[in-house]
Amino acid sequence: MKIYISGIGMEVRRKKIKNLYLSIKPPDGRVEISAPLSMPDKMIEDFVRGKLEWIRRKRKKYEEACPEKERQYESGEILYVWGRPYRLVYQEGGRKNSFELCGDEGILSMRSGSTVKQREAYLREQYRFMLKEEVVRLLPEWEMKTGLYCNSWRTKQMKTRWGTCNTTQKRVWFNVQLAEKPKECLEYVILHELAHLKVSNHGMAFRAIMDKYMPQWQEVKKKLNGG
User: Fold this and answer.
1) Which of 57, 86, 13 is nearest to 222 (CA)?
2) Cα–Cα nearest to 82, from 14, 4, 151, 136
3) What is the mean pLDDT of residues 185-193?
4) Is residue 68 scored above 60 in pLDDT?
5) Which of 45, 134, 167, 189 is deepest in the core (most CB within 10 A)?
6) Measured between alpha carbons, how far is residue 161 from residues 21, 153, 156, 157, 206 in Å?
7) Residue 29: its pLDDT value, please?
């Protein structure tokens, strides 16, 4: 059985044991849980949530020891969609390009002879499409909650920011890569940029808005930035 908590996939194996055991496996920081046969799923999840900070620290050590190789967008690589990991299955020779999530797999089909850059560009557009769908759904909800409204919004690839806004034109941009993160991270960025429409800095007034509408925003921010 596989569970996903805060965007981390964890393999749960039930055994004839009395206690629950959690381990982080090299070289990639894979999380494995051994649990008694009769232990309820919720008890396992509650235990893991209490260990999340420890899990993140251990996984980070493995990541630092084994830097991520440059993506080739080939079978076996791991892609993330809304915080959930998918094993990439690359297929070539199809009549048209496509990307589909099926179980734990992300199936990428490309026409023959595609390059790494073409595969990257195609997947980026799939992420853009998924992000737009969620922004269309979530942005109006947060605008109504806060009473803060933008005039327009767009998506773009950004290297150093998850979102940005033009306070004069009241236009907001969202980083396409947000589609790789848990949806609560997107909600945090939406609230963050809406708050900037009222407060341009990150001072007490800004923090008051964040605290009021998302009390756990600092935890979500850490998750977004891999903390």
Assistant:
1) 57
2) 4
3) 98
4) no
5) 189
6) 38, 15, 10, 9, 18
7) 80
- Annotate the chain with three-state secondary structure: CEEEECCEEEEEEEECCCCCEEEEECCCCEEEEEEECCCCHHHHHHHHHCCHHHHHHHHHHHHHHCCCCCCCCCCCCEEEECCEEEEEEEEECCCCCEEEEECCEEEEEECCCCCHHHHHHHHHHHHHHHHHHHHHHHHHHHHHHHCCCCCEEEEECCCCCCEEEECCCCEEEEEHHHHHCCHHHHHHHHHHHHHHCCCCCCCHHHHHHHHHHCCCHHHHHHHHCCC
**Which residues on adjacent β-strands are paired with residue 153?**
172
Dihedral angle at the C-alpha atoms of 141, 176, 79, 99, nearest 10 degrees? 90
Q: Which amino acid is at 119?
A: R
Which residues are registered as beta bridge partners of 90?
108
Q: Find the range with the poorest average confidence among 29-43, 62-76, 206-220.
A: 62-76
Q: What pLDDT is stored for residue 89 in this prediction?
A: 95
pLDDT tens digit sequence for 90-117? 999 878 999 999 999 999 999 998 999 9
Is a pLDDT exceeding 80 seen at residue 125? yes
Report how far apart, in Å, the C-alpha atoms of 123 and of each of 92, 131, 141, 209 are: 15, 12, 28, 35
Region 72-82: mean pLDDT is 93
